[in-house]
Amino acid sequence: MTRNVLIAGAGPGVSGSLARLYASEGGRVCLLGAEDGVLEALRSSVESLGAAAATAVVDLTDDAATRTAVTRLAEEAGHLDVVHFNPSAYREKDPLSLTPDELLDDVRLGVGALLTLVQAARPFMGPGGRITATGSMAADTPWFGAASLGVQKAGLQNLVRSIDNTLKGDGIRAVSVTVRGMLAKEGAFAPDNVARALRAAADQDESAWQSEIAYTA
């Protein structure tokens, strides 16, 4: 099955593996990210697999710029089958040093940007469309030393559930995959394996749909 896929927060890790996984099936891969060099390298790897690719450099916390970028890429693609949300902010501060403004800045990227992405992509999605997100065990077992990450991942998981309930009547489903382990170069938590888990979550049977799936070793 060929699909048009939009990946937000695209980079060399899990999102890059996911881009190449979808590219291997054909279709079109649209990449949103913050660094031009990273996007161009990923674009080249996608195109080397025979898929069409398009990129946009954008600060995902900039609502207007992100909406413009999503609309442009979606119009070029014609429609979107899968929208994937990957970004989060890692700030090594515990609750006694983290400021409210820093927390809000991080949540704006790791959670709030999903609202922008979904609202901008929705006009280009139809029945069978899927929204996926990279979750983390930090949602319910946070490390105090990076307190904002746990808040982001808990909020992401919650928001994905709300998005799924909002769109399921239109045949569009949303799911977050909670990665219960540390990402590594090899093994179960290597980016390619996590990407396959995200791909499988998008393909789950709609009659038994789960809006949050745990990925473990």
From TrEMBL:
Gene3D superfamilies given for it? NAD(P)-binding Rossmann-like Domain
Origin: domain of life = Bacteria
Sorted UniProt keywords: Oxidoreductase
Leader sequence range is none
**Which GO molecular function terms does the record list?**
oxidoreductase activity
Q: What is its EC number?
A: 1.-.-.-
What family classification does the UniProt entry report for this protein? Answer: Belongs to the short-chain dehydrogenases/reductases (SDR) family.
Name listed for the protein in its UniProt record: SDR family oxidoreductase
